């Protein structure tokens, strides 16, 4: 077992390896020393053929989220190695594989994330005195990219988005940016990646394969050469760490920094846009005053609006026209707010579904949220401003998905998928048959016995279990 552990650890040298053994995740050697100190858990030892016992510590698998969040929040990467076959059916050692690497910028645990704030990972590429920037929030599917020519422009983007993790090429480390000051001010973990991540052709190929296109023109990346490299490198890094196809990241948004007002870090802090200068809290900031949003998604959007003020007059007026119309129609506005109130965080629910970590009650929350869309769409038809009309026309009521969940999932399913009772009775004949066999086993066996007697002609045939 230790030989297999060491082989896996060799592949993930820069990570703390959570190695699943039965009902525990175990850590050994240096990982155990670090984890026991950071998590304040008992350090023990294990005999493994060496002169001294190998340092070892462990955590229960059902409590992993809390420990994982604690390590990741301190900047550590954690590789989760799971048992990928049933121990009862395994011949010899149970097969194990790393199913995911959790880093500060790729943590999708809802308890670790602030609901009204994005958790961004940023990729920075420094080539030919230009900086390519790509950002992603895998908990919502947001994927943005741009490029800048100055350090000031780069720092403005960094302070604006406040990523929890920055990955970069080796050249960025010697570009003149004060990395220690950056870490101190935004608290981000910064890692340099291997050169192959930034191969021009490899990056373009990765982006085109992900979005299923044959050219970058359709994605709007033609004028963003350096940004394309950053975007491709980030996507490859996410593939490597998440071990999934990231199907919820359905589009990439290239943007020009000239679309928004440039606000340096000192001005951003002194204006107290999203947090106060003294306490670093939302309460007392401009965002706190303005935030009357009903959903987590609306809260994140408002934060982005405040952090990135528009400077294009036409776009500003388009937004203000919509606000004016909403203010003038108080009844319709309040109806919209009532329908928005029960809507869950659809972006992060979709992320859980993509990662196959959604539980049955998440699906019910998803269904209940989708149920509100047709009503909101009907109210939006009453408005005539360009922005609200565009929203109404582009809004899909997702009736087919709502109907599928409504028909398939029980109204009050258990939170744990292993408890059963998730699929609604009448949805699937085979499931109904198996459920009936479980609850009415004796009657089912008696009927089967009679059927087989008639079929075989054996009058004294007995079926027992």
Structural class, by secondary structure, is alpha/beta
Strand order in the largest sheet: 3-4-2-1-5-6
Q: What do the pLDDT scores average to?
A: 93
CATH class of the largest domain: Alpha Beta
Identify the CATH homologous superfamily of the largest domain. MutS, connector domain
Low-confidence stretches: none
Can you put this structure into words, describing what you see?
The protein is 45% helix and 14% strand. The protein folds into 4 domains: 2-102, MutS, DNA mismatch repair protein, domain I, CATH 3.40.1170; 114-259, MutS, connector domain (Nucleotidyltransferase, domain 5, 2-Layer Sandwich); 312-419, Orthogonal Bundle (MutS, DNA mismatch repair protein, Chain A, domain 3), CATH 1.10.1420; 428-465, no CATH class. The chain is globular, with a radius of gyration of 27 Å. The strands form 2 sheets. It has a 6-stranded mixed sheet with strand order 3-4-2-1-5-6, sandwiched between helices. A 6-stranded mixed sheet has the order 11-10-7-8-9-12. Strand 1 (16-21) and strand 2 (24-28) form a beta hairpin. Helix 15 crosses helix 18 (399-408). It is built from 20 helices and 12 strands. With 465 residues, the chain is an alpha/beta fold.
């Amino acid at each position: 077992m230790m030989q297999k552990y060491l082989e896996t650890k060799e592949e993930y040298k820069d990570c703390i390896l959570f190695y699943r053994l039965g009902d525990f995740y175990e850590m050994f050697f240096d990982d155990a020393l670090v984890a026991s100190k950071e998590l304040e858990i008992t350090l023990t030892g294990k005999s493994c053929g060496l002169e001294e016992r190998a340092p070892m510590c462990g955590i229960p698998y059902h409590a992993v989220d809390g420990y994982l969040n604690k390590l990741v929040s301190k900047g550590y990467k954690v590789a989760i190695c799971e048992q990928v076959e049933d121990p009862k059916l395994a011949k010899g050692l149970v097969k194990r594989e790393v199913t995911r690497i959790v880093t500060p910028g790729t943590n999708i645990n809802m308890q670790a994330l602030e609901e009204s704030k994005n958790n961004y990972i940023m990729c920075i590429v420094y080539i030919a005195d230009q900086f390519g920037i790509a950002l992603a929030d895998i908990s919502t599917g947001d994927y943005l990219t741009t490029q800048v020519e100055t350090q000031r422009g780069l720092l403005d983007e960094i302070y604006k988005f406040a990523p929890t993790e920055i990955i970069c090429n080796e050249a960025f480390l010697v570009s003149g940016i004060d990395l220690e000051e950056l870490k101190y001010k935004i608290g981000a973990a910064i890692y340099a990646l291997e050169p192959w991540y930034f191969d021009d052709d490899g990056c373009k190929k990765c982006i085109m394969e992900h979005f299923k296109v044959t050219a970058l023109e359709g994605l709007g990346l033609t004028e963003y050469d350096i940004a394309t490299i950053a975007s491709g490198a980030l996507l490859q890094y996410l593939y490597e760490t998440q071990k999934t196809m990231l199907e919820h990241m359905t589009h990439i948004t290239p943007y020009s920094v000239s679309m928004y007002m440039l606000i340096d870090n000192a001005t951003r802090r002194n204006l107290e846009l999203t947090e106060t200068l003294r306490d670093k809290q939302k309460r007392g900031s401009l965002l706190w005053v303005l935030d009357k949003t009903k959903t987590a998604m609306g809260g994140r959007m408002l934060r982005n609006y405040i952090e990135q003020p528009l400077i294009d007059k036409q776009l500003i007026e388009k937004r203000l026209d919509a606000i004016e119309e909403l203010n003038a129609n108080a009844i319709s506005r309040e109806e919209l707010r009532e329908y928005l109130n029960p809507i869950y965080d659809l972006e992060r629910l979709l992320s859980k579904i993509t990662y196959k970590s959604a539980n049955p009650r998440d699906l019910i929350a998803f269904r209940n949220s989708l149920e509100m869309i047709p009503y909101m769409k009907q109210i939006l038809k009453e408005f005539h401003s360009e922005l609200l009309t565009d929203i109404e026309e582009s809004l899909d009521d997702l009736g087919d998905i709502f109907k599928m969940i409504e028909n398939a999932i029980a109204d009050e399913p258990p939170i744990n998928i292993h408890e059963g009772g998730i699929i609604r009775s009448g949805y699937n004949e085979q499931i109904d048959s198996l459920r009936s066999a479980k609850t009415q086993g004796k009657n089912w066996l008696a009927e089967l016995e009679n059927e087989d007697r008639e079929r075989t002609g054996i009058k004294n045939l007995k079926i027992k279990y």
